[in-house]
Inverse folding.
């Protein structure tokens, strides 16, 4: 028998051991795991909330909105929660899970669609599960727990009873009456459970119909073609299959390695954008009825221009992209974390660093979820200006995560609005003109292959500033800016005789300053053809002595004059003629290097090119020389003003110009030839002189094996309008029928545009009434 001292010693030892255990645990909590519990304390008290940024609007030169952001609402599915907490999702999931446990039914899956394995049958399957399935040891622990959870969801939602009471009834039935189906363990009858489930399913189906109907109505309001929208049930079916397969998000990293991320069912997936407020509000108010469906604010990019137009394609697209590194580096000041989590917020500097690191991670994650970037066209070209800065708020909240106090915030910054050089009214007129020209020239062909090769395009510039007033092409086959006809071209893009004014300037210059040339006074008269290096080159008609006169040769487009001019100028002289007007890339040390414009921000037009394998005299009449209508119009702006502008789409931006000194007399001769071209030359049938005093030049280049042509017309008006803009233009129709020339195909396009402008009071006053000019 132990003495009292021994007993006291044992008790004291036990107390001491217990004290040491408690002390050790406290040490682990306060020292070893201090970081963990401190972080949890911070998460329970503070959080960071993002504020989406509004992207800047694009407007035309007169302030009309072309595209802008508009606050909207988005509906999304968080499937992991939906299949566990929504009665319909839980029924489908539980029925599939239970069927997979039965011998011979392992591959059976229930769906959200009507049919033999639809949601109603899934409910019946769940209600028929015997309660003994929830006894301990009957099923694997993980499977039993998941099945019990979703079965409880179904019974609680359909009976209106708390989950705790339902789960207790299931457990009691499992212990006492194991054969009893779980649909009979509550005081609510099975028929009542089915009726409640049917009402919930009908509500979900009605939501799906409302969302799809609104999407169709919205497209009609915006004048968009109908499209098959992804509805709620279609999205649920897709996510159900991913859930069963355990699929994860996949992507390829910068090194090209395949990576996997979160389970697809754990990522919110939108099934409806731009949802009306009333519909979104009703869903939010009834959020308890449809757990797993979420309402979140979003921003809609609204286009004033319908799809299928040139301007819509040129404006480009905005999509959500992972652009974290660039955004963080560009969009945030260096001290933004100090501003967001100021000193004094936490008890220690270390805790403050933790919060700042959390803020950075939240910001980057929100960029990934919310950031939008332009991927094509002007949206991509001016993305830095248009993209704002995502905001972040540092808030203190209570146990229900309701905000109680705003500590600080990183202010959201909207993107800058951008005014473009386009004149919306003029753009619409240009769109109509190119569509009419494209249809007219396409319908001349009977062969479908030829019809599919026809394209039309027109560019209108302000000759004085280089502003692009309109740029249109037809047909529009995609929403990519690069596919707008005239931006690039299929096959041969030779510009034909619209090159002749530039060759004539060089010819006259060389005669004046003595560079290599053949004097035009010594040219042979045009008999319709000549030989060069054993090759027969022809003119469209016999001009005789008119083919020796520079003005007449230009106005009547005599090839023989320019063949002889090109031969006399030689390779260097012809290259100089093109480089002076930005139609050929400069060589090293070129005096005309400043005339070259490598690109136009916002329109990735193909750069001018010259095929030096083409016979020299043929290059002098535009064969083997390719350029976009934009580049040709820019060169014609220099013919109009004596100044070669840099073309741009950003209204009001300062852009350099190149003064073409020393060629004023030569330009006067060229202008006289262009005037006579419209009065009495190759463009005389267009009736452009008496009405508009157009100075222009036609161009035709044979490009097809059956003598199909590129038809061109370029020119300008000799005055500035009431706002100081002097319009110049270049139109082209690629692949026109044999015997159809530039004046007929492209000239008619320009005539159509000018007549439309004259009929519009504003455009007429803005551009066609002379105020000043040459």
């Amino acid at each position: 028998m132990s003495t009292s001292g021994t007993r006291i010693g044992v008790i004291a030892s036990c107390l001491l051991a217990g004290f040491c255990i408690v002390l050790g645990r406290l040490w682990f909590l306060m020292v070893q795991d201090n970081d963990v519990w401190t972080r949890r304390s911070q998460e329970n008290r503070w959080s960071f909330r993002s504020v989406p940024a509004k992207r800047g609007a694009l407007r035309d030169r007169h302030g009309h909105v072309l595209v802008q952001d508009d606050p909207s609402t988005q509906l999304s599915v968080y499937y992991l929660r939906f299949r566990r907490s929504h009665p319909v999702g839980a029924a489908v999931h539980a029925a599939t899970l239970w069927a997979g446990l039965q011998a011979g039914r392992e591959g059976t899956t229930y769906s959200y669609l009507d049919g033999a394995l639809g949601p109603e049958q899934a409910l019946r399957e769940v209600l028929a599960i015997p309660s003994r399935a929830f006894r301990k040891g009957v099923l694997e622990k993980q499977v039993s727990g998941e099945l019990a959870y979703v079965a409880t969801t179904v019974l609680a939602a359909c009976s209106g009873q708390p989950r705790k009471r339902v789960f207790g009834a299931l457990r009691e039935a499992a212990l006492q009456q194991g054969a009893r189906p779980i649909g009979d363990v509550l005081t609510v009858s099975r028929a009542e459970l089915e009726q409640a489930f049917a009402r919930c399913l009908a509500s979900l189906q009605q939501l799906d119909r409302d969302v799809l109907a609104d999407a169709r109505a919205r497209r009609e309001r915006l004048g968009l073609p109908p499209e098959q929208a992804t509805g709620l049930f279609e999205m649920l079916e897709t996510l159900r299959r991913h859930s069963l397969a355990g699929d994860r998000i996949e992507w390829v990293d910068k090194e090209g390695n395949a990576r996997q991320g979160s389970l697809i069912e754990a990522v919110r997936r939108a099934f409806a954008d731009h949802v009306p407020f009333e519909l979104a509000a009703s869903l939010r108010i009834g959020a308890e009825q449809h757990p797993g469906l979420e309402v979140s604010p979003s921003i809609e990019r609204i286009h004033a221009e319908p799809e299928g137009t040139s301007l819509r394609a040129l404006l480009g697209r905005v999509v959500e992209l992972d652009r974290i590194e660039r955004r963080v580096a560009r969009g945030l000041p260096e001290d933004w974390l100090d501003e967001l989590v100021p000193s004094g917020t936490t008890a220690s500097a270390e805790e403050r660093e933790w919060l700042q690191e959390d803020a950075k991670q939240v910001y980057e994650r929100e960029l990934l979820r919310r950031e939008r970037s332009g991927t094509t066209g002007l949206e991509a070209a001016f993305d830095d200006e248009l993209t704002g800065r995502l905001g972040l708020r540092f808030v203190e909240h209570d146990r229900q995560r309701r905000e109680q106090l705003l500590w600080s915030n990183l202010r959201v910054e909207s993107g800058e609005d951008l005014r473009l050089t386009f004149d919306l009214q003029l753009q619409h007129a240009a769109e109509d003109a190119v569509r009419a020209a494209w249809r007219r020239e396409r319908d001349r062909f009977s062969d479908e292959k030829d019809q599919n090769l026809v394209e039309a395009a027109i560019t209108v510039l302000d000759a004085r500033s280089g502003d692009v007033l309109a740029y249109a092409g037809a047909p529009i086959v995609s929403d990519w800016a690069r596919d707008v006809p005239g931006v690039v071209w299929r096959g041969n893009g030779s510009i034909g005789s619209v090159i002749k004014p530039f060759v004539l300037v060089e010819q006259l210059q060389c005669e004046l300053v003595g560079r290599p040339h053949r004097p035009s006074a010594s040219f042979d008269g045009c008999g319709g053809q000549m030989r060069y290096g054993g090759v027969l080159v022809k003119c469209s008609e016999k001009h005789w002595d008119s083919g020796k006169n520079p003005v007449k040769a230009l106005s009547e487009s005599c090839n023989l004059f320019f063949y002889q001019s090109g031969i006399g100028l030689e390779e260097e002289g012809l290259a100089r003629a093109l480089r002076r007007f930005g139609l050929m890339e400069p060589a090293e040390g070129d005096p005309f290097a400043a005339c070259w414009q490598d690109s136009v921000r916002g329109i990735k037009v193909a750069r001018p090119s010259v095929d030096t394998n083409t016979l020299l005299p043929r290059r002098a009449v535009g064969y083997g020389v390719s350029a976009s209508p934009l580049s040709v119009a820019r060169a014609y702006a220099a013919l109009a003003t004596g100044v070669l502008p840099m073309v741009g789409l950003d209204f009001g931006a300062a852009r350099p110009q190149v003064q073409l000194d020393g060629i004023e007399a030569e330009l006067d001769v060229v202008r006289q030839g262009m005037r006579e071209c419209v009065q009495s030359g190759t463009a005389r049938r267009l009736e452009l002189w008496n009405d508009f005093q157009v100075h222009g030049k036609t161009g035709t280049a044979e490009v097809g094996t059956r003598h199909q042509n590129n038809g061109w017309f370029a020119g300008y008006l000799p005055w500035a309008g009431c706002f100081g803009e002097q319009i110049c233009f270049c139109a082209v129709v690629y692949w026109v029928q044999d015997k159809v020339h530039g004046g007929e195909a492209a000239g008619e396009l320009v005539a159509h545009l000018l007549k439309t402008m004259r009929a519009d009071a504003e455009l007429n006053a803005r551009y066609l009434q002379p105020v000043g000019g040459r």
